[in-house]
Design brief:
This protein has 297 residues and is of the alpha/beta class. It folds into two domains: 196 residues, Type I PLP-dependent aspartate aminotransferase-like (Major domain) (Aspartate Aminotransferase, domain 2), CATH 3.40.640; 93 residues, Aspartate Aminotransferase, domain 1 (Alpha-Beta Complex). Helices cover 39% and strands 17% of the residues. It has a seven-stranded mixed beta sheet, with helices on both faces. A three-stranded antiparallel beta sheet has the order 8-10-9, with helices on one face. It starts with a helix and ends with a helix.
Length: 297
């Protein structure tokens, strides 16, 4: 991993730490970077764990709204920065929306963080599932960026708890120390398996997911749902149709029809959308789309 990162970024000060899953990496980053009272910028919608992690270390979440297209508005980010801002949490491809930030947004965020001397954490666990173009990482433009990645999603080994984080040596050293007193290490035998996984070409699996992405986006739009383009991960985040209640209410009716989807309020301060995962068989996706068609008639 270290040699691959050196080749990709060419940052002499960039170090890598193998962690107990990407969740473990996020916990360690929060413990290393955020003090009580510090502010952390989070983009709404967000991965469900982010606000809880900020609260766990005594920080304050500052939300930047990205509705309706889930694109990052750099002016909004700049307006959210205060003298107390310590960290920006960035996730692309995004859970729950599947939206991938373009190079202009990634670069703008990297430069904004550097200008204000704010830490920037880029959660790139879905990096291999970018369907239209390679993922632009803010680390390309800001060598101080902390990047979280892992094996769980890319190689379908979520229970193995294998992640990694790379960034400036001073921060990675602190995270290493914290790991020694918390998680200790990622499971050692599985780390050897992960080394072998790095040589496996996953492009065929990514192509299968891209096929499912088109199937579900086309099906949702044909059924009258408003949904932002998904270019990565394996999620879409449609809006609940007008007059069909909140996300929670709509999901309850879906579950009554044996369709499991997640209300948007889990991932947001709004409850107007719902999340679908298309990490499922084509038959399951088709059956789910049929239920959603019925619910919007």
């Amino acid at each position: 991993l270290q040699s691959d990162l050196q080749e990709e970024y060419g940052h002499d000060d960039r170090r890598v730490l193998v962690t107990s899953g990407t969740s473990g990496a996020l916990v360690l980053a929060m413990l290393a970077l955020v003090d009580p009272g510090d502010e952390v910028i989070i983009f709404d919608p967000y991965f469900v764990m982010y606000p809880a992690l900020v609260a766990m270390v005594g920080g304050k979440s500052v939300y930047v709204d990205t509705y309706p297209d889930f694109r990052i508005d750099l002016d909004k980010v700049a307006a959210a920065i205060t003298p107390k801002t310590k960290l920006i949490l960035f996730n692309s491809p995004a859970n729950p929306t599947g939206v991938v930030a373009d190079a202009a947004a990634a670069r703008g965020l990297a430069e904004l963080a550097a200008k204000h001397n704010i830490a920037l954490l880029s959660d790139e666990i879905y990096r291999l599932f970018c369907y239209d173009a390679p993922l632009p990482s803010p680390a390309q433009w800001n060598p101080e960026t902390i990047v979280v990645d892992g094996f769980s999603k890319s190689y379908a080994v979520t229970g193995w708890r294998l992640g990694w984080v790379h960034g400036p040596a001073a921060i990675i050293d602190k995270m290493t120390m914290l790991q020694q007193y918390t998680f200790v290490c990622a499971p050692h035998p599985l780390q050897w398996a992960a080394i072998a996984a790095l040589d496996v070409d996953m492009s065929a699996q990514a192509a299968d997911y891209s096929q499912r992405r088109h199937l579900i986006l086309d099906g949702l739009r044909d059924a009258g749902y408003e949904v932002a383009p998904s270019a990565g991960a394996f999620y879409v985040f449609p809006k609940v149709p007008e007059g069909r209640g909140t996300g929670q209410e709509f999901v309850a009716r879906a579950i009554e029809n044996d369709l499991l989807i997640i209300p948007g309020g889990i991932f947001s301060r709004r409850d107007t959308h719902f999340r679908i995962s298309y990490a499922a068989s084509l038959a399951t996706i088709e059956r789910g789309l049929e239920v959603l068609r019925r619910l919007n008639r």
